[in-house]
Specification:
By secondary structure, this protein is α/β, with parallel strands linked by helices. 42% of the residues lie in helices and 16% in strands. The protein starts with a strand and ends in a 10-residue tail after the last strand.
Length: 201
């Protein structure tokens, strides 16, 4: 794993919004947030990171639909002293050392390991969790096989352990198709010595 460059929180937020604008699960809620701010998807699809007003609007949007600064939900206990980096991670590291968040669904799907390889095993065996269909994984896998390019995964770390913050479905699809994953892949990683305080770590 090689550090490529330090990046700003604004870049991380933009990448998060890009991914969820493409998500059937989160797109509607994100769009509702845009409407509340009288903004449109252009601030995501054609972003100007040098425009501070745009950056502030994207952060407000992130707060509205994801409670980013509110210390609840996904971001309960999330540290504020994070350094964000764009990093080249190896395929082996990605598929064997990155954990899902500590959340009931992912714990059950992986039989407790929170590792993508065990999620793939469950999916292949037809195991479903909390009556949630595996169709989303299978459909996304087919799209990946047809050449669809995915947005960057966003990971976090305490300097030792890596946990995916955004991109669980994409990480699973990579694990389902290891032969199609490049030997190195760019990701965003947020480092904090306080990351263990995050409720999902």
């Amino acid at each position: 794993m090689n550090n490529r460059k330090k990046i700003t929180e604004n870049i991380m937020i933009l990448e998060f919004l890009k991914a969820e604008l493409d998500s059937s699960r989160f797109k509607n809620k994100l769009t509702e947030g845009l409407n509340k701010l009288n903004a449109n998807t252009e601030i995501i699809t054609n972003a100007d990171l040098k425009n501070e007003e745009e950056n502030q609007t994207r952060k407000k949007l992130f707060n509205i639909y994801r409670d980013y600064d509110n210390n609840v939900g996904l971001f309960e206990g999330f540290p504020t002293n994070i350094e964000w980096h764009e990093v080249d991670i190896t395929k082996e590291e990605l598929l064997n050392q990155v954990f899902y968040i500590d959340y009931d669904y992912w714990t059950e799907l992986t039989s407790g390991s929170r590792l993508p390889k065990d999620a793939v095993k469950s999916i292949k065996e037809g195991k479903t969790v909390f009556e949630v269909s595996n169709e989303g994984f299978l459909n996304a896998s087919e799209d990946f096989k047809k050449g669809k390019k995915f947005n960057k995964l966003i990971l976090v770390s305490d300097g030792k352990k890596l946990v995916v913050l955004e991109g669980h479905l994409r990480l699973t699809v990579y694990a389902m198709n290891p032969d199609l994953v490049p030997e190195t892949i760019p990701v965003i990683i947020g480092y904090s010595s306080n990351m263990t305080e995050w409720s999902c770590f």
